[in-house]
Amino acid sequence: MFDLDSTGWIVVGLCAFMVGVSKTGLPGAGILVVPLMAMVLPATKSVGALLGILILGDVFAASYHRRNAQWKLVLRLLPATLAGIVAGWQAMKYVTNEQLAPIIGVIVLVMLGLSCWRTYRMGDDAPIPTQWWFAALLGFAAGITTMMANAAGPVMIIYLLAMRLPKFHFVGTSAWFFFIVNWVKVPFHANLDTMTLATVKLDLMLLPLIAAGAVAGIILLKRIPQRAFNSVVQILAAVAAVKLLF
Fold first, then answer.
1. Which of 83, 214, 73, 191 is nearest to 146 (CA)?
2. Nearest-CA neighbor of 39 among 9, 64, 61, 68?
3. How many domains does the chain fold into?
4. 1 pLDDT exceeds 60?
C-alpha cells in the first residue's frame, strides 16, 4: 500500500468523491482529479489508481442510468475510441502526458469555440452533426486521452453537447460509454504496470466515498435545469482544456 500521510488520504478521498459526482450527475466535475492524484501518488501509479476509481464510479453510474443511454451514439464512437486506446498505449512508450496535454487542450478549446459559434449563429436550429468523420475524430481523440491521462471527459462533453441530448440521456450515454472504455483499458494498464494489486486495494478502500459522491451527483442532476446543465458542462470542459495547456 502507498505510504500516504493525512494530507494524501484527504486528497485521494476528495478525488474519489468528485469522481462519484461527475459520473452520475455532472460530467466534468472531476477536472482536478488527474493532477491531484499525481500530487500524492507516484506518477505512473496515479493513472492506474485513478482508473480503478473511475471504474467503480462507472458501476454506480451505469446501474442508475441503465435506461438513459443512447446506444447508437455509444456504438458510433466505440470503433475509433478503441483505435485511439491502442494508439495511446503505444504512445505511452514514447510520449509523455506533458507533451500530449497541450495538444489535446488546444483541440478541445477550438472545438468548444466552434460549438459556441454554431449555437450563437443558429440557436436550437443548429443541425446535429451526423458525418462519420465527426464521431471518428472525437472517438479517436477520446481513446488517446483516456488511455494516456484518463482525461477524455472534455472530448465526450463536446460530442454529447453537439447531439443536443437531454441531461439524463447526456449523463447516461456518457456513463455507459466510459463503463465500456475503462474496462477495455485495464489489460493495457496492467501490461504497463500502472495498475497493480496495490492500486486496486487503494481503490476498494475509497469505495464508500465514491458511493457518496455518486448519490450527491444524482441529487444534483435532478435539481439542475437543462439550460444551466449545458452551460456548466461547457464551462467545465473549457476549464479542463485550459488546465491541459499549463
1. 83
2. 9
3. 1
4. no
Specify if 94 maps to a domain: yes
- Within 10 Å of residue 66's Cβ, how many Cβ atoms? 11
206 vs 241, higher pLDDT: 206
**Can you give the residue range of the structural domain that contains 134?**
6-245
Total-model pTM: 0.85
Residues in the chain: 246
Residue environment code for 96-120, b if the CB has 16+ CB neighbours within 10 A, otherwise e: ebeebbeebbebbbebbeebeeebe
Q: Is residue 129 part of a domain?
A: yes
> Rounded CA gap, 156 and 21, in Å?
16
- Residue 186 belongs to a domain: yes
Reported as a single tens digit per residue, the pLDDT across 175-214 is 999 999 999 999 998 988 889 999 999 999 999 999 999 9
The pLDDT tens digits of the residues spanning 42-72 come to 767 888 899 999 999 999 999 999 899 999 9
Positive/negative CA dihedral, 50, 20, 116, 118: positive
- For helices 207-223 and 6-24, the axis angle rounded to 10 degrees is 40
The three three-digit cell numbers of residue 45, written as one number: 501509479
From CA 60, how far away is CA 64, in angstroms rounded? 6
Average pLDDT estimate for 118-127: 61
Residue 61 forms part of a structural domain: yes
